[in-house]
Fold each of these.
Amino acid sequence: SLSDLQPLGLDPILSIAARVARDPRPERVDFGIGVYRDAEGHSPIFAAVKAAEARIARDQRTKAYLSPLGDTRFVAAMSAAAFGEHLAFAGLQTVGGTGALHLAMHVLAATGSGRKVVLGTPTWPNHAPIAASAGLGIRTYAHRADVGGAFDPAPLLQAIATCSAGDVFVLHGCCHNPTGIDPNLAQWQDIAAAIAAAGALPLIDLAYQGFGEGWAEDQAVVALFHDAVPELLVAYSCDKNFGLYRDRVGMLTVKGRDATSGQMIVQHLAAAARTAYSMPPDHGAVVVRTILEDAELSRLWRSELDAMRARLASLRQAFAMALEARGLGQPCLSRGFGMFGMLDVAPGDVEQLTERFAIFLPPSGRINLAALTDATIERLADALLAVRAG
Ligand code: PMP
């Protein structure tokens, strides 16, 4: 019966937010939760989003049902903006990047027997549960930096060399969560060639386009794989780069062996959506489409996103220098991209940071760099030094 259910452990990141809220110390800082913050600690709504919402409130004439594909104009506009007009993709709107991954894994589980999902660990903590919920087996390899702080491709290449044809490689397209360590373009080329040779299937998870090296640079891996492999899935989230988190906006784009098979895959994805939730929520997708279809709103949105990227990159460099100055330099922090990085902490260090300094982060040591400010950079670096000293 339902009373047989056992209590579940709390999600480490969400439980930190609850602890921070209960903590009375005014200097407390939450480095856990993965949303962008400005210098005042707010997660602002983009001005471009506010303007688009005003327009939608004024002009929208109906909220009649669409279809399990969602807003197809959103998918067309978003894929063109993300990947360029020249890349042929079929696709559908999804409930965030999570929904895209969920639909992809469920349709993959229904095709090809014994497929496994291959994950580089650490990874976003929802990847393995989504694969497991689809009934797919999981293999892992170490996603890590070499001593110089650059991505070490050896474990991934080894996993590809030992996979079975049809295995699914979930690859973070940019701004790896949680390490911030991405392959460079030459490494991506080797990875794509190896995946093509093995007959494996890449599923690119692109949740942070625009937060890494730049808008075009952050999707270069999609273009590269599109050329290299016959079949490709891209799970795309607009929740970070439009700041729409709770509105749940994403898409799943598909390259099939030919245009007909691409459309066929999308039909099956739409059927999976139909049984799960019938149709994705509309609002966020209309916001994104309204921005992308308007040159002025597009410029405004891109300038806001570019400012976020620049701020993240400068916080990352300032924090890396503060660590360096205390003899705690971590090359993979200074060389990383995006919102996250991993602090090199021993077990127990994190609890000390919290107890002694009101600094909150998950036990893994992942920090959200957007939660740093000029003042907390020094505080966090000092606290790390103090904890090291014991
Ligand atoms: N993939 C990765 C790597 C992520 O970090 C996230 C969000 N934290 C997602 C997918 C899911 O994004 P969404 O909120 O759009 O479902």
Amino acid sequence: MSQTFIQQRTERTEWFLRDRFGMFIHWGLYAIPARGEWVRSVERISSEDYRQYFDEFNPERYDPKAWARTAKEAGMKYAVLTAKHHDGFCLFDSKLTDYKSTRTACGRDLVREFLDAFRAEGLKVGLYYSLLDWHHPDYPAYGDRIHPMRDNEAYKRDPERFGVYLDYMHGQVRELLTEYGKLDIMWFDFSYDGMKGEKWRATELMEMIRAQQPHLIVDNRLEASGEEGGSIYTEQPSLYSGDFASPEQIIPPRGVTDDQGNSIPWEACITLNNNWGYGANDLTYKSAKTVIRKLVECVSKNGNLLLNVGPDAAGEIPQRSLTVLAEVGEWLRRNGDSIYGCGEADLPKPDWGRYTRKGNKLYAHVLEESVGPVNLAGLGDRVQRARLLADGSELFVTRPWNAKLYPDDAFFNFAQPEHFTYPLPDER
Ligand code: FHN
């Protein structure tokens, strides 16, 4: 693929790499059983039995404006909502199916309300769209097969039949791109086994996407999954390799680079508890401290964090999620300069934490309790001054007591000057 392709990808993702922190929202019929979004497959729920959730779905407390305020106050700059997950239920008013929110008791176009509310709060907006579809009669999963995505008999047996599904899938993506205003992200999910790339007619799909919304950024899962990355990691990315890699429930040890070592846009998608969809009994929520540390780690490696919430069947984000997000937002209100617009610092990771960098500003995230001054090893005289970002207070930068031994070291200390054991600048 040409440098122009890479250059266009760089231009498209400029806002994405600046914003760094987004909200992932997995919501749909599976919020009623409240055992995660794979419940139909894992528990082998038949189409008939799963239909009960369609018949009763009526999220009366769905207030996307409240969701948008929550995301904004948490310091999130963009949000991605499931427009359709693997169960095939559409949260938007698709003309290609009746298996949609506007045909349930709520009668609402949940996607349109989400987009309007989050745009009104100034957030960028994205839609997740499942390539798999356990409901559509022409998708291999038709019928009640456990882990249907792994069982592709229908495709092998009758590609024509699967082609009918692909026309449906492409048609719905076109609906989302042409009837819901300017979108910022399309988050496809996911390729697997032999189902990747042209098996989805991905070139045709990407050409349509680029024609309809050329600025839109797309993830890499038209040819990849959460575990594998696809050609975006290579020097020859395909047309449908996507604009960013999407490691899932992990933060890559050294960030994400192509096979030439060039950093490429990436976003770690991570759940707040252990479920993407609402899990009523899943109380394994990460603390705000953990979320902040993971956000710092992503940015220190040139990546984004897409943090997931799973609203309940009433349409509300769980209180435990709200509590964590509020605390993260408080930290970002005071320390967001060290996250937004920042990236890796091209310095060895210090023992005490991580660096992020923006231009000539270096942010030292001291994550380990330090005994005495914090060593900015290797930075020596390059550090002109230090300030505590949260309140702007001065931190004295000192040189080691035997500078000859540590010529490239500099230290700063959170303690007040009288606690210093080193000569203060004016005493040198
Ligand atoms: O199977 C899905 C899963 O339900 C969830 O949507 C995640 C989010 O990235 N993607 C797939 C698993 O990789």
Amino acid sequence: MTEVSVAKEDVAATGDLVVLKSVNKHFGALHVLQDIDLTIARGEVVVVIGPSGSGKSTLCRTINRLETIDSGSITIDGKPLPHEGKELARLRADVGMVFQSFNLFAHKTVLENVTLGQVKVRKKDKKTAEERARALLDRVGVAAQAEKYPAQLSGGQQQRVAIARALAMEPKVMLFDEPTSALDPEMINEVLEVMQQLARDGMTMIVVTHEMGFARSAANRVVFMADGRIVEQATPDQFFSNPRSDRAKDFLSKIL
Ligand code: ADP
Ligand code: MG
């Protein structure tokens, strides 16, 4: 019996981590996600691009159940998304999310921001949580800011704290929704570098971004969305050098 369960875990450890099947979502009359089929393998880095309003943020938000879906299914690590309560808090820990607007707790220090969820959701003792928080703050290059409040940090520093906070929860997958769009230009690279390193370390990542340099160097796959649909998926090389759809060609001609 033990052997069987070990074998099963081996299969899970190499398989698909995030699976969306025929996902549909409406906002009133707007069909914002249309028959989305998307499978993300463990360790894969997928960059999602597409025009404003195409449904990229909504897609991310459905994956950690900040939005519900109308039909279809989403599984993380083989399990359907929970609806409420502790299960939902655990899902949100498993699926780390980094937003354009940082979303740190303004009245908590940087260290507290990165410690809280570990204690509340992951049930770590405070000392263990703080040690992990300090190690992660060091990893993203803001260890010296640990006792400060978010407003005392630059945007780039705040976003790196937000990444550390998500990582502290030991997520299975990280979602980034335009993590550098609100940053001053000189701070974009410090955040992208942290994300590059995370990708090299093998984290499964879904990244909505207009940073095509990041897409080219870090992504295993580019997913192009328009009008609530996945129009095209390809390797970055294929996508940027030879986009197949007119929508993608048009989009690339405007941004490159
Ligand atoms: P993207 O991130 O690609 O710019 P979004 O997922 O944010 O696109 O939005 C897709 C569409 O859904 C847009 O037309 C947007 O106005 C609409 N939308 C997003 N969130 C809501 C909401 N909570 N209620 C109504 N419409 C929404
Ligand atoms: Mg968006």
